[in-house]
Design brief:
alpha+beta; elongated
């Protein structure tokens, strides 16, 4: 008989914990014997495990009783069925005996006829089998011949296809190289064969503006390569990322950097903000206001025709429909542009005030962009890689050149930037940053401006001016 608990020898008095531990050990040994496969879930407490094992045994016992009763019932039903089958068997056996006698009589009467029929049937069956085997062999030969023939044709077609594919690929690559070479020559002609102080044609203006966009996207992509990103209230004043999630951070950075460029180079229209805010802006405005004052005096003497009331309320209204004013603006900024280009070749110790404004504005712009990227990406010690810093410097330089073109170009160049919450219609002037041209014709509410637009207004003899979209404004819509 199995002993559940082992006898214990006389020992010094033990604590309750020792006794409980000893009994737990005995219980576990017992359970390891009777439940070695651990079919029942063991618990942390040995006594609970024993009770769990006992409950499992009781459940199994109840299930065995149910199974035993069911099997007894099945046996009883089987016995009843055996009795019925035995009775039926006796009746069938009696009939078999009768049929056996009848069959013997029939076999005796028709044995010769059956033998003849069997002989004829066997002969015809052999003929059918032989004919069927011949047909199968012929089909196999035909199939093999077809497979070999088709295999040859397929290999020939594969070689022809590979040759044609290689020919088309070579032709396509040649066309691509030709197109790239042609495009390179056109770009070189566009960028080189022109006086840098003159107004850029629309293609060159678009090329440089798209290059500025590419540089901005490039530094953002490299900055966001850091996995440790943080956007505070200062970098996300409208709570954009709370609405769309951190996965759209690149759009917020685009808007931030373009706002910096707008503040540093485009805060005042017609190129007067190209050298930055503050003293530089005041000095250039003084030049303009001095000329404007003399121009107004000429008009009062009847030398020119202009709208004096408009000049008294709108500082730059004179440029809207006055060709002479726009020509003066273009000539003035050509001189400024020429002096600033010379600054790149001169000793910094000999620079003019305009050249100092240029240097200070470029440095301030570069520092603001670095700060935006460093704060956003939480880069240790505000460190940016050398190629990123170089691209930031190129962004500042190129933005200055584009900003000066707003003054050099006698036509009116505009940088339309819709406000947060403003409604715009997707089309020629506005594109959606996410789905490109998917929503053409739809009116969307602006959440962020990820690329300011670039437009050109040309005065015409008619009442309506001619507006040309050089680069469409890209917006991120409100969800």
């Amino acid at each position: 008989m199995m002993t559940f608990f082992t006898a214990r020898s006389d020992k010094p008095k033990e604590s309750a914990a020792d006794v409980r531990k000893a009994y737990a050990s005995d219980i576990n040994k017992f359970l390891n014997k009777v439940d070695s496969h651990k079919f029942f879930r063991r618990r942390h407490d040995a006594l609970d495990s024993l009770f769990s094992w006992g409950d499992g045994i009781l459940e199994q016992n109840e299930q065995l009783k149910i199974d035993l009763n069911r099997q007894k019932e099945e046996i009883r039903e089987s016995q009843d069925r055996i009795g019925d089958l035995s009775h039926a068997y006796a009746i069938a056996q009696s009939k078999v005996e009768e049929l056996s006698k009848t069959n013997d009589k029939i076999e005796k009467e028709y044995s010769d006829e059956l033998a003849e029929i069997t002989k004829q049937y066997s002969k015809r069956l052999e003929e059918k089998e032989r004919h069927h085997n011949d047909e199968i062999a012929a089909l196999k030969r035909d199939n093999e011949n077809t497979r070999v023939s088709m295999g040859k044709e397929i290999r020939v077609k594969d070689r022809e296809h590979a040759f044609e594919q290689e020919r088309l690929k070579s032709h396509h690559e040649t066309q691509i190289l030709t197109h790239k070479e042609k495009n390179k020559r056109l770009v070189q002609q566009l960028l080189v064969n022109q006086d840098p102080n003159l107004a850029w044609p629309d293609d060159k203006l678009k090329f440089h503006y798209k290059e500025l966009q590419r540089l901005v996207d490039s530094v953002i992509r490299k900055a966001l390569a850091s996995k440790n990103q943080h956007f505070g209230l200062q970098s996300d004043p409208t709570g954009f990322l709370k609405r769309v999630g951190d996965g759209k951070a690149r759009f917020l950075l685009k808007s931030t950097i373009w706002n910096i460029l707008k503040d540093q180079f485009f805060s005042v229209p017609y190129g007067f903000g190209a050298l930055g805010p503050g003293t530089a802006h005041q000095e250039i405005m003084n030049i303009y206001l001095t000329w404007k004052k003399g121009f107004e005096c000429q008009d009062e003497q009847g030398l020119m025709s202009s709208n004096i009331s408009s000049l008294s309320t709108e500082t730059f209204a004179i440029f809207q429909h006055n060709k002479l004013a726009n020509n003066w603006r273009s000539s003035t900024f050509q001189c400024i542009n020429s002096e600033l280009l010379d600054a790149e070749k001169q000793d910094p110790q000999k620079e003019t005030p305009l050249q100092t404004f240029r240097r200070d504005n470029l440095r301030q712009t570069t520092n603001r962009i670095k700060s935006a990227l460093s704060n956003t990406s939480q880069i240790s010690d505000n460190y940016l890689s050398g190629d990123v810093e170089e691209e930031i410097q190129r962004i500042s330089d190129l933005a200055l050149k584009v900003g000066l073109q707003f003054g050099v170009n006698p036509a009116r160049l505009l940088l339309p930037i819709p406000e947060h919450g403003e409604s715009v219609q997707i089309g020629e002037q506005f594109h959606e940053s996410i789905n490109a041209d998917l929503n053409i014709g739809n009116t969307l509410i602006v959440d962020l401006v990820t690329l300011p637009g670039l437009q050109k207004i040309i005065d015409t003899n008619s009442d309506a001016d001619s507006k040309r979209v050089i680069v469409a404004c890209e917006v991120y819509p409100m969800a």
